[in-house]
Amino acid sequence: MAYDQYRPTSFKLLPPVVKNILIISGLFYLATIGLSSAFKIDLADILGMHYFAADKFQPYQLVTYMFMHGSFSHILFNMFAFWMFGYILENVWGSKRFLIYFLITGLGAALIQMLVFYFQTEPVLNAISIYQQSPSVTSFKDFMESSNFKVVSYDIQNHVNAFQGKYNSMLMQADTLNQFADVTMAHARELQQQSLHLPQIADSLRDQSQLLTMQAESIRQSSDSLAAMNLRSTVDFMDQYRADYLNAPLVVGASGAVFGILLAFGMMFPNTLIYIYFLFPIKAKWVVIIFGAIELFSGFTNLPGDNVAHFAHLGGMLFGFILIKYWNKHNRKTLF
Q1: Which residues pair with 281 in a beta bridge?
Q2: Which of 10, 180, 288, 314 could staple 266 via S-S, CB 3.0–4.6 A?
Q3: What is the mean pLDDT of the chain?
Q4: Residue 112 is part of a domain; what is its CATH number?
């Protein structure tokens, strides 16, 4: 493969792939705002990347998620970093190779994040399956108080609010009926004892006792039926919780590909100075190492409220490293 295929004829600050990705990302961001305001359509939910086992997942999301962003600051910093390092790489590699690199690192970021989602969701899904195989009031209470129950989306919160009141109400009704059955049964036994000491009205007392016993059994059956129906509702609730839980993770943004581009820049121009916050000069190779270490640490610590897909960033860097090494091995002149 000839090196001239990747050698730029001119050095542009806005080469075609960088320019078009900036434009597409900007249009998608404006469309997200416009469709949400005008038609209440959540474009991020449609084009952002869901977990592959979720109802909302579609294969095209593995690509479209890269062009979606959650806020103005999100798209601003992503696109600035993308332009800052990307235009140099596109000028050096050429548009075709740069586009391939951008897409593969973005896909790699998605695949690594999917793997992380798998390890995060499996314990919860196993706990749900175990509960549904042998549901009980006690085990349901234990599940709701365990770490396997997480309110990670508005859908989960709404369904919990709608379910919890009905469940508690039916639980109280069943308990009240059961207590009433106990009282009725106790009264029947008392009449049975009185019949032993009052032979003149013993038959009447025994008849009353038998009638109360039948009433108690009927009340207890109603209580058991209500409790069983309530327990079945917890199984249905678990189905809904599973669906909501799987649909909750959503990844948007080109950060994974941007981290891949940062890695490529650091590998190709390791001693080039990068000015952090436009003030502090640091060599590119150290920036890559520092950012990689931060993402690794942040990914494993998983602090509460941190909704950044750190492993997607690392996935972009990992796939970028593998791809560069592959290219370098098969045609060394094209890179170093």
Answers
A1: 275
A2: 288
A3: 91
A4: 1.20.1540.10
Domain total in the chain: 2
Token pair, residue 152, equals 């990670």
Rounded Cα distance, 24 and 36, in Å: 18
Instruction: Provide φ and ψ at 249, rounded to 5°.
Output: -65, 130
- The 10s digit of each residue's pLDDT in 63-119 is 999 999 999 999 999 999 999 999 999 999 999 999 999 999 999 999 999 999 999
- Short-list 289, 333, 266, 323, CA closest to 103: 323
**For 263-283, how does the pLDDT look when each residue is reduced to its tens digit (9 = 90+)?**
999 999 999 988 876 677 899
Question: What is the distance between the alpha carbons of residues 14 and 324, in angstroms, rounded to a whole number?
Answer: 23
Domain boundary among 207, 232, 247: 247
Among the three residues 247, 280, 309, which one is the final residue of a domain in this structure? 247
Q: Please give the structure tokens belonging to residue 141.
A: 């209470």
CB neighbour class for 278 (10 Å; exposed up to 12, middle 13-18, buried from 19)? exposed
User: What are the φ/ψ torsions at residue 274 (nearest 5 degrees)?
Assistant: -115, 130
Cα gap 334→295, rounded to integer Å = 30
Same domain, 239 and 186: yes
Give me the residue label for tokens 């962003």. 69
CA separation for the pair 22, 247 (Å, rounded): 28
CA–CA dist 91, 89 (Å, integer) = 5
Structure pTM?
A: 0.85
Query: Do residues 276 and 81 touch, judged by C-beta distance below 8 A?
Result: no
Residue 222 lies in a domain: yes
Q: Which residue has the tokens 């590119």?
A: 284
Q: How far is CA 121 from the centre of its chain?
A: 8
Q: Does 276 share its domain with 239?
A: no
The full length of the chain comes to 336
Find the domain containing 232 and state its range: 153-247
Alpha carbon distance 281, 273 (integer Å): 6
Q: Which two tokens stand for residue 223?
A: 């209580």
- Cα distance from N-terminal residue to C-terminal residue, the chain: 15
Q: Give Cα 61 distance to the centre of its chain.
A: 14
